[in-house]
Design a protein that fits this description.
By secondary structure, the chain is an alpha/beta fold. It has helices spanning about 15-25, 70, 105-115, 120-130, 135-145, 150-160, 175-180, 185-195, 205-220, 235-245, 295-300, 310-315, 340-345, 350-355, 365-380, 395, 435-450, 455, 465-475, 525-540, 550-560; strands spanning about 5-10, 30-35, 80-85, 85-90, 100, 225-230, 250, 255-260, 265-270, 280-290, 325-330, 360, 385-390, 405-415, 420, 425, 460-465, 510-515. It has three domains: about 5-50 and about 230-320 and about 485-540, FAD/NAD(P)-binding domain (3-Layer(bba) Sandwich), CATH 3.50.50.60; about 100-220 and about 555-560, no CATH class; about 325-475, no CATH class. Helices cover about 35% and strands about 15% of the residues.
């Protein structure tokens, strides 16, 4: 370990590793300090059940090929192998019907919707046909351009050209727009579920309406649900290999306890006494990048004494609890089988049962999302559960994630972290998760059995992971959050993490934060946008290899695998 580096990154999550790898590839000396003994805390794969059963305890739908880092950081070269079926996502209903999304053929998704509502299918066909050639530009502007009024105006211009999309969307919720566009409640649930699993709630004005458009755009662009061979943790491994290859350094078991401040600037870090290098001071010549969320970054490491009062107030009121998930994992002795598979096989494609990766269930009426909103506000456990946080059938795509003949399933139910009530029972806040984990896990399992009865007969073992476990595992993710914080309007896009921060820059000179734009994800948006801004400030952005736009790596991946994208079959 050297005494100083050009850039220091605090935290070895996937977005911190992404930013660090870009800086190293630009020729900067870089050190990453990670508190745990392994990078990628929220993108990990562990054997918490029987040997050989690989559980992805957090990030599960791995989508780095939707952004520039996939090619610019050469993730395939460094060991990441993406796996994607033809059909990506299924939304079963209790009546035995379902909606299914195809991974690269929007017309086939529309054919699925047409089985439920011909009018809604034609609406979906019309929405993006006239702007298909602008999808890459819109995607790149929103996800892979640092937040700015100029970048947002490009997205607004794109939206203005979509036929039928309301021009007053900023004054509407997702509910409003869905009611204007679609007649079927099932179709509305299809998109609302995917919004919520992307950390965008439909009940917020502006954010909800924009989120609905982005979710339809996500499907129409040909993106859905994928995994990495061997499990989620292969992503941080590939990022770490890239960083090391280009001369960067990673120090694990090295928690940072303080950011060194001099004359209002971040100058370096101090490692904790429990670190592998206890109490060590390491200086940063050019920049300190925090891959932690706002409270630990500003209140714990910078310290209130070094912050303007308005920053302290903004960080103290940061909302972590908007996106919180309760997790069931199962290992089964046969594949999970939904009752809707017979209907899907007859009306769409028999291969769906064997290759679909993701699903949600339990919400049959759009009004139920309002029930979720009220439960979050009151600290009440949803009962029946609301399982719309993104569920996965890992072994459908990657049999290596379980022993031969075994199959793994994960469900994510949306819940509050600070639980105060469950029906007539009073609870005592987050610590109550330890008392009710198995009981609420039973409620989720019982609900799943209404859609896939063999969850009961095929079950070999079950493991429960609660929101409290999330925070215990990663103390940067307070309030049980998976996303880094709620996607409410005052914490969204230019306002994230708080209005006036200017993220990834911060009010502290030479200090940057990866909590930028929107929810943390394996898109690597946050790490990429941080890298862009740091590189611009250091004068090293002009690299010949730094020229890829969002979505382009995915489209090239499809071509290499013999898959042809299609938006529409006809336009009415």
């Amino acid at each position: 370990m050297k005494d100083k580096y050009d850039v220091i990154v605090i935290g070895g999550g996937v977005n911190g590793l992404c930013a660090a790898a870009y800086m190293a590839k630009c020729g900067q000396s870089v050190a990453v300090f990670e508190a745990r003994n392994e990078v990628g805390t929220f993108c990990d794969t562990e054997e918490v059940m029987m040997p050989g059963v690989r559980c992805n305890l957090h990030a599960s739908k791995i989508v780095p090929f939707l952004g520039p880092p996939y090619e610019e950081l050469e993730l395939e070269r460094f060991g990441l192998e993406m796996i994607s079926g033809h059909w990506g996502y299924i939304r079963p209903f209790k009546d035995g019907t379902a909606l299914v999304n195809h991974n690269y053929d929007w017309e086939k998704t529309c054919q699925s919707i047409e089985l439920i509502s011909k009018k809604d299918a034609d609406t979906c066909r019309r929405l993006f046909a006239p702007v298909e050639d602008k999808i890459v530009e819109a995607w790149d502007a929103f996800y892979f351009t640092p937040p700015s009024a100029q970048a947002f105006s490009r997205l607004v211009e794109f939206m203005s050209k979509i036929p039928g999309f309301p021009q007053n969307w900023a004054d509407l919720t997702g509910y409003h727009v869905a009611d204007m566009l679609f007649e079927s409640d099932k179709v509305k649930c299809f998109f609302f579920d995917k919004m919520i699993e992307s950390a965008i709630d439909p009940w917020h004005k502006g954010v909800g309406s924009l989120g609905l458009l982005l979710q339809i755009l996500y499907f129409a662009a040909g993106c859905s649900d994928n995994t990495a061979r061997g499990g989620s943790h292969l992503l941080p491994h590939a990022l770490a290999r890239c960083l090391l290859h280009y001369g960067g350094e990673i120090y694990q078991s090295c928690p940072v306890t303080k950011i060194i401040m001099e004359n209002g600037e971040a100058k370096g870090v101090v490692l904790g006494e429990e670190a592998a290098y206890p109490g060590r001071k390491v200086m940063a010549e050019k920049a300190v990048v925090s891959d932690l969320t706002p409270v630990p970054t500003f209140l714990w490491l910078v310290g209130e004494e070094n912050l303007p009062q308005e920053v302290t107030m903004a960080v103290q009121s940061y909302d972590y609890e908007g996106q919180v998930l309760f997790t069931n994992y199962w290992v089964l002795n046969e594949p999970l089988r939904f009752k809707c598979y017979d209907w899907v096989s007859k009306n769409l494609d028999p291969s769906i049962e064997k290759e679909v990766f993701a699903f949600n269930f339990g919400v049959e009426d759009p009004a139920d999302y309002t029930r979720l909103m009220h439960c979050m506000a009151k600290g009440e456990l949803p009962d029946p559960p609301m399982v719309c946080g993104a569920c996965c059938l890992y072994t459908n795509l990657d049999p290596t994630q379980a022993p031969p003949g075994m199959h793994t399933v994960m469900t994510w139910a949306c819940v509050p972290y600070n639980i105060r009530r469950w029906g007539d029972r009073k609870l005592n806040g987050p610590e109550s998760w330890d008392d009710i984990r198995e009981e609420y896990g039973d409620r989720v399992e019982d609900l799943l059995a209404e859609y896939a009865p063999n969850i009961k007969t095929a079950k070999v073992q079950r493991y429960i992971h609660t929101p409290l476990d999330n925070t215990r595992k990663n103390q940067s993710m307070l309030g049980g959050t998976w996303s880094g914080g709620a996607g409410v309007p005052h914490q969204f896009y230019l306002n994230r993490p708080f209005p006036g921060c200017g993220a990834p820059r911060t009010p502290i000179k030479k200090l940057y934060i990866t909590e930028v734009a929107w929810a943390r994800s394996t898109f690597l948006t946050q790490g990429y946008d941080t890298a862009v801004v740091v590189a611009e400030d250091l004068g090293v952005r002009n690299q010949p290899w730094w020229n890829v736009r969002g979505l382009e790596p995915y489209f090239r991946w499809l071509e290499r695998h013999g898959r042809k994208r299609r938006i529409i079959n006809f336009v009415k």
